[in-house]
Records
---
Amino acid sequence: MLLEILAYPFMQRALTGGILIGFLLSNLGVLATIRKMSFFSEGIAHASLAGIAIAIVGNLAPLPVALVWAIFIAILIYVLERSTKLHSDTVIGVLFTSSMALGVIIMSQTAGYQPELISFLFGNILAVNTNDLLIMFLVTLIIITWFYASLRQLIYLSLSDDSATVSGIKTKTQTLIFYIALALATVLGVKILGIVLVSALLILPAATSRLLTPSFFSYMLVSVLICEASILAGLILSFLKDLPSGASIVLMATVFFAVAVIFNIFTSRK
């Protein structure tokens, strides 16, 4: 059945894009959950609407413009967190609502149906084209290279910011890069899952893995496996039942999470 599905070029592109983004989001998701940053991803996803709207009005490719806008928002969050008395969730809430409002205003000036906007709002992994795949591959390669080169520092930083600073880690630099990496990964995920659902794939595999694993290494490994399995199962379900691809992927990730919760409850009683 899988070979039959992969006979279609659009499914080949969808699976390739899904594997790339799944690997990226599941790795970053582990640290995002440790640092309690799930709302950051949600904020970036909604804020990206302004970048998408600017691209559509300017007749530009939406994905590159949305990525640049995400970097801008991530840097702005970082700066405002450290230069004001506002808490992180307040800063993110202000920026994502403001940016989303800007996107709505910009889109109101365009006439007619906008398929690219609908694609980013609700996700359409089946619409991923060759240029999108190239961008996904390059961004994923850059982020993953930095991520594994800095993994020890990032783990230490996630556990204790003060201790990391004392040990000589450049906490400000690494935190800023992590914000940017998470923002870029989120926007790439928006292309596949949509603004509404993208944060689910960042959090669900990591949360599921946390319930099942005893060590940090296995935590990361199982998170990746669950994320990729969710994407594959979701794509198959979407293809066979003619369902929305993004929602199908998130639904499968939710099923894995539910099974992990049940397993965790029963094993903890023994």
---
Amino acid sequence: MAALHVARQAISEAGWQAADLKDAALVLGTSRGNAAGWLGPWPGRRPFNLMAASNTIHSEPASAITIEFGITGPSHVLASGCAAGLDAIGIAMLLVNSGIAPRALAVAVDLPLVPILLDNYASSGLLAKGRSLDPYHSDTTGFIPAEGAAAMAIEPREGNYPRLIHYGCNSDANDPVGISPDGGRTPELLEKAIQLHGLPTAVSPHATGTAVQAIAEPAAFRRVFRSSVMPSVHLLKPFIGHTIGASGLLESVILADFLKNRQLPPNFPSLIAPEGFSLPHEVLDATGLIYKLSHGMGGHNALLVLSPP
């Protein structure tokens, strides 16, 4: 299982032993659990009849992880659509900061590449009509779906590690499949983070490629960022596609990997930048805060603030 694989990698990299895992928390983000395994089964995905019942519920990946690694602390599953992965980091971070758990493992997984799910996305008008993604182009038609899993080990620790500074979320209560074209309540998330922690030097937006996203995110940015020096913008879905509920955590792991070296990822060449902003094509030095955004269907907005070591 993809979730088990990435969980094992994160635990190994963190150096956690059995005693560390016993009282750890687990927070898993996914849009629809193991739905792909039973909507479109094939031998590469869960062929075991014994697991037929548990495969149909969202909590099955989390249960498998807790059993495999002996995690007996708090365990939560979040299904906030495309924001689930970022929410998993945020809730895991809050559990640690509040003292509920000494450490937490955030995991996200989504495997949507089965015909019935892709047909649903296509009928909603959300899929791209081409093979390349330029999220802020005026002719953008939708997102390019992908499968993915990622995990992040979270604990208070000194050393050369990226920092999780802030998490916030809110809802627009606006539309079942999109965000408000004017940016909705995303500016409030950004303004609160700026008030608490200061302006970012870089922003990594959700940037799926849907028509409403191409309008809404630049509108939100214009409502918030008005200084002469704008944060650089870093788009990751043109490289990896949209992994739905896994996207926020997967993209945060990519950002964190760059931040370990005090760097920011480049953008794919020739992409259109939102008016007034830049999409640098080269690796930049990370000199300040990075704001990472995710949005879920129904108007759920999530923000994570990271910093280099």
---
Amino acid sequence: MKIAIVGAGGVGGYFGARLANSGQDVWFIARGAHLAALRERGLQVHSANGDVLVKPCQATDSPARVGPADIVVLAVKLWSTEEAVREAAPMVGADTAVVSFQNGVIAVDQIQAAYGRTRTLGGVANIAAVIEQPGVIRHTGTMAQLTFGELDGTISPRVQALAAACEKAGIAHKASDDIRKAIWEKYVFLVAASSMTSLTRLPLGPIREDPDTRALMVQIMSEVAAVGRAKGVHLDADLVDKLLARLDSLPRPMVASMLGDLERGSRLELPWLAGGVVAMGKETGVPAPANQFIYAALKLYADGRPADARAGK
């Protein structure tokens, strides 16, 4: 299977490396120092699930060089989605499937608008991984799973083929018959985790252990779930309770990737996470005051650390 990955960061780098290491024809679209390192030293993944080195590594900044692929994976930050969809065009042939393993809930609609429903798959990645340095991915913990599926819920031959590739690569995976529901289930949890770890600058452990911060996290998740249901997503009535049980099972030091972006002074996915909930809440008439609070509290950092955040200002 020929797989093109747009975005060789924590998600694309980790799963792409495992697929490549298992013998799949994997191409990475990257830029700058990361691309140079991939070409010169290969792609190194450090993980409790087993280290991987892909060398030589098929990496380029020219999608036209890759040509049509069986699967095109989008694994960029949310603000780069439109650019990534456009950039993928030379790799999208008549039989290509395009799937996003990004955060948020917007990518499926953007892929479908660009390439049509028949070329669109939905996807969810559950993993904590980052670029530690150019050419090197650091995976935190052991959680690393992909969920993917057709928009109509069928387990199609191409979904089966991707599942077989994941099986060969040793990647935990699930072929979903309701991928929109799976995307929203992750979104409910991710919005709360990214919001609370970024707001408090603390990991999930102390947040879940304090009754007030735990209650705020519950409120955030409840609002996101209400918005999803208003948009026609069939979320379980006890979803928040299930997600709380999941929260309590996670490693105490775990943080959302948005906190890392905040601490580095990088751009945040906030407008598509808590901010996205606020916007969709207004569209559907669902109040989202906790998400509005998170968005207002962090929005001055959304484009990176503001100049006035320097010491003495």
